[in-house]
């Protein structure tokens, strides 16, 4: 296999103490149909800042919402993954996008809106936002990205980096194979569906595998989760996993990674795993908080879960 060379990146050009102001240029809903899970695609103009040419897809930007919390302290910084390719949104290096889900929670019969996500989701073109970063040096495409096949597993807004990465791969004369497995609760929650459906139709080397968890059940009664696609779509995924130049990227809900590792183990794709100690008879019995004592991802797996 080709060596996996991750690019050198500059981190925290702008810190929390000295953030930089960028301008919103667009803010639209990223689902085709309306959904109670509101996810928005937001693009910032970073021209005139030192961030231009310095942000790679896979990295995040910090956002500082204005105002203070109930104790009078400034709101905490929140990190948002970049969803534009490293060359910039729409090919413009001064445009950087992110993907934001409005967070809404009910506690003791009162409704609470997440501060940063709703602040961002409400922004209009022309509004200014204080940002920091970039941050993250590991969840990146290799410098020699074209040498590899990719299986991207995303749940929810975990799709953000993969949107940019897939743009980036197919901007080049990419000739290997790439699969996006995307999991969400309902069909109305599919993110950037038009883009991925069109790519799937037009690019022989790209395969879009949506996976809807709450509309139907598998034969054994379990939910369709991204990891179950390793079985459901094994005709597509197994030959790809068997290739020595395939990399796996995982982004989204904490816990999804263990499901994927267990499936890889079950199917014998152990080259993606590091088995740290003897496994119990049924590895699925390992408690989540102890999982990484037994099984860790190998160098061929990139993981960002939250
Ligand atoms: P579900 O909530 O039906 O159990 P979103 O971020 O839009 O809510 O989407 C997250 C998706 O990930 C949902 O379809 C959710 O299914 C699914 N999911 C929940 N837990 C896991 C898990 N452990 N592994 C993989 N997918 C999961």
Q: Can you put this structure into words, describing what you see?
A:
It is a single chain. By secondary structure, the chain is an alpha/beta fold. It has two domains: 20-135, Elongation Factor Tu (Ef-tu), domain 3; 145-305, Rossmann fold (3-Layer(aba) Sandwich). Helices cover 18% and strands 29% of the residues. It contains seven helices and 15 strands. The chain has helices spanning 115-121, 160-171, 193-202, 229-232, 234-241, 256-266, 291-294; strands at residues 20-29, 39-45, 60-64, 78-81, 95-101, 104-107, 110-113, 128-135, 149-155, 178-184, 206-212, 246-252, 273-275, 295-297, 301-305. The strands form four sheets. It has a six-stranded antiparallel beta sheet, covered by helices on one side. The chain has a five-stranded parallel beta sheet with strand order 11-10-9-12-15, sandwiched between helices. Strands 6-7 form a two-stranded antiparallel sheet. Helix 2 links the parallel strand 9 and strand 10. The protein is globular and about 55 Å long. It starts with 19 loop residues before the first strand and ends with a strand. 35% of the residues are buried. The model has no long low-confidence stretch (mean pLDDT 97). Bound molecules: adenosine-2'-5'-diphosphate. Adenosine-2'-5'-diphosphate binds next to strand 10 and helix 6.
């Amino acid at each position: 296999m080709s060596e996996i060379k991750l690019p050198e990146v500059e981190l925290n050009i702008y810190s929390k103490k000295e953030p930089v102001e960028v301008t919103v240029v667009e803010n639209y809903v990223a689902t085709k149909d309306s959904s109670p899970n509101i996810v928005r695609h937001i693009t910032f103009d970073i021209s005139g800042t030192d961030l231009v040419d310095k942000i790679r897809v896979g990295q995040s930007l910090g956002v500082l919402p204005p105002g203070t919390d109930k104790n009078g302290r400034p709101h905490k910084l929140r990190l948002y993954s970049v969803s534009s390719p490293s060359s910039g949104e729409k090919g413009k290096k001064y445009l950087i996008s992110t993907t934001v889900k409005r967070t809404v929670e009910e506690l003791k019969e009162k409704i609470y809106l997440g501060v940063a996500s709703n602040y961002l989701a409400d922004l209009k073109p022309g509004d200014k936002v204080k940002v920091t970063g970039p941050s993250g040096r590991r969840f990146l495409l290799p410098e020699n990205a074209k040498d590899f096949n990719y299986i991207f597993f995303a749940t929810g807004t975990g799709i953000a980096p993969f949107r940019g990465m897939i743009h980036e791969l197919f901007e080049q004369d990419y000739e290997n194979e790439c699969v996006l497995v995307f999991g969400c609760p309902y069909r109305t929650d599919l993110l950037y569906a038009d883009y991925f459906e069109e790519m799937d139709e037009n690019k022989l080397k790209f395969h879009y595998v949506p996976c809807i968890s709450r509309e139907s059940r598998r034969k054994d009664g379990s939910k369709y989760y991204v990891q179950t696609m390793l079985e459901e779509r094994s005709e597509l995924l197994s030959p790809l996993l068997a290739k020595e130049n395939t990399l796996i990227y995982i982004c989204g809900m904490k816990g999804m990674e263990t499901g994927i590792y267990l499936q890889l183990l079950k199917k014998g794709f152990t080259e993606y795993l590091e088995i740290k100690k003897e496994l119990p008879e049924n590895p699925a019995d390992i408690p989540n908080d102890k999982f990484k004592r037994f099984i860790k991802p190998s160098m061929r797996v990139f993981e960002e879960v939250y």
